[in-house]
Design goal:
The chain has 16 helices and 20 strands. It is α/β, with parallel strands linked by helices and 489 residues long. It has 3 domains: 87 residues, NAD(P)-binding Rossmann-like Domain (Rossmann fold); 216 residues, Mur-like, catalytic domain (UDP-N-acetylmuramoyl-L-alanine:D-glutamate ligase); 143 residues, Protein-Tyrosine Phosphatase, Chain A. Strand 1, helix 1 and strand 2 form a beta-alpha-beta unit.
């Protein structure tokens, strides 16, 4: 008989609970490890063995049953009381389908973390400030974390970036607040979360290989919108993206939660925005009907690119919803620096700037990068994940000096360029016989140099995932940077 785990939290009696953890990566390991420490009987399953031996040995010593290798995730153990899935598991996966048929609860790692949360130094449960969106999630969460720290709070970026959420909530030294990045995959398996404040930055075509049903984009947007459900203080939305406001309107929030818009223009009452290159608040001040409070200047940010300003506004809104003072917003954003591979200048050769934005892994992100520069030789391509590029090309064609295309789905981009920017020169670069992405990137950068003029930007903003030719987006960005720097020699 399946044991009811509905009411179990951090201090519940987990002894005798048979918990199955699907996926043994970073978040799966954190879930399995902490469930084992709580007293549950844990079985962890993963089709892959690579890189998991040390973690498996450690948990095996603690009594967990670790099953790795092909076929291990096809059958749910007969006595399972709970299935915890790592991000990315499709609802159609056999393990999940079997759990649904048998009435076994399916929790994501985020759902497990929410149920295991404890009180912080205030004596109340540690609040979550949560962010999702097609693009800008990591930058916004890292900006938010910087602001919270500038306010003197013990904060951490967790979830889809930084620490796994289960590890964060189980830290023996409690945090004051969590800055939480959530993907649509994570939100799909999250039901009970009640963030103090939540933001959807944007909703654009992405992951349509995962959301492959007849209502793919609708299902994707609905999962994004789950972040607003039960929000207690503020639902932050993008004024320039009506879909985000629609998701707020449809959310079932706690009484008193406010809709807070962010805009690159003059903010209305209840919004944050920009006035004369100053980020201002008309949402969290008493005089918001007649005035605005200065938060910081655009030149305090690491880049004046519009999408960076938008991310800063969203982070500021979430921090202000938590009660952070204006000065901490300024100080946190002033000290913030990007991670690598996010609109990072890696070389300047003959008055041409080479910019690595390998993190731009979908068309929406690539469009934001392209709009930040006046004249661009665009290096793009990889795994398109079912996305289309017509809107991107149509909205940026006046900025394109040329395009150099690499990767498996380069023809998808080439066809969009032919339809909407037929006068833009296009060069396609094949992988060599070894399939080396680094060799292809070398040739792409050399081709881009030949096409660029003085004052141009050669921009790696692939609009695609990297795994067809590279280990990950960082490996792709490193290859681009190395090739660009070799031009100087």
């Amino acid at each position: 008989m399946t044991r009811d785990v509905t009411g179990l939290g951090r201090h519940g009696d987990w002894s005798g609970v048979r918990a199955v953890v699907a996926g043994f990566g970073v978040s799966g390991f954190a879930a399995a490890d902490n469930l084992t420490h709580l007293g549950a009987s844990v079985v962890a399953l993963d089709e892959s063995v690579e890189g998991k031996a040390d973690r498996a040995e450690l948990l095996g010593v603690l009594g967990a049953d670790i099953r790795l290798g092909e076929g291990t995730t096809q059958t749910l153990p007969d006595d399972a009381d709970l299935l915890v899935v790592s991000p990315g598991w499709k609802p159609s996966a056999p393990l999940i389908a079997q759990a649904r048929e048998r009435g076994v609860p399916v929790w994501g790692e985020v759902e497990l973390a929410w149920r295991l949360r404890s009180n912080g130094p205030s004596g109340r449960p540690v609040p979550w400030l949560a962010v999702t969106g097609t693009n800008g999630k990591t930058t916004t969460v890292q900006m938010l974390d910087a602001i919270l720290r500038a306010a003197g709070l013990r904060s951490v970026a967790a979830g889809n970036v930084g620490l796994p959420l289960v590890a964060a909530v189980m830290d023996p030294t409690p945090y004051d607040v969590f800055a939480v990045e959530l993907s649509s995959f994570q939100l799909h398996y999250t039901d009970s979360m009640s963030a103090e404040a939540a933001a959807v930055l944007n909703v654009a075509e992405d992951h349509l290989d995962w959301y492959d049903g007849p209502n793919g984009m609708g299902d994707y947007a609905a999962d994004k919108g789950r972040i607003y459900h039960r929000s207690r203080t503020a639902c932050v939305y993008n004024v320039a993206d009506p879909e985000t406001e629609r998701l707020v309107r449809e959310a079932d929030v706690e009484e008193g939660a406010r809709a807070i818009g962010f805009t690159l223009g003059m903010p209305g009452v209840g919004m944050v925005g920009v006035v004369d290159d100053i980020l201002v608040d008309r949402a969290f001040i008493a005089e918001r009907q007649s005035s605005a409070a200065e938060l910081c200047r655009v030149d305090d940010l690491p880049s004046p690119a519009p999408h960076v300003v938008a991310n800063a506004l969203a982070a500021a809104a979430l921090a202000r919803a938590h009660g952070v003072p204006q000065a901490a917003v300024r100080d946190g954003l002033r000290g913030f620096r990007f991670d690598g591979h996010r609109i990072e200048t890696v070389a300047t050769v003959d008055d041409v700037v080479y910019v690595d934005d390998s993190k731009a892994t979908n068309p929406h992100a690539a469009r934001s990068s392209l709009l930040a520069y006046e004249h661009v030789v665009w290096i793009a391509g990889g795994l398109a994940k079912g996305a289309h590029f017509d809107d991107l090309v149509a909205s940026t064609r006046d900025r394109l000096r040329a395009a150099v295309l690499i990767g498996r789905d380069r023809d998808v981009i080439a066809e969009a360029l032919a339809r909407h920017a037929p006068d833009v020169p296009v060069i396609t670069v094949d992988a060599d016989q070894t399939g080396s992405g680094h060799a292809a990137m070398e040739r792409a950068v050399v081709a881009a140099q030949d096409l660029a003029r003085s004052g141009d930007t050669v921009l790696l903003a692939p609009g695609c995932a990297s795994m067809d030719m590279f280990a990950n987006y960082a490996d792709r960005g490193d290859a681009f940077a190395a090739a660009a720097r070799r031009l100087t020699g």
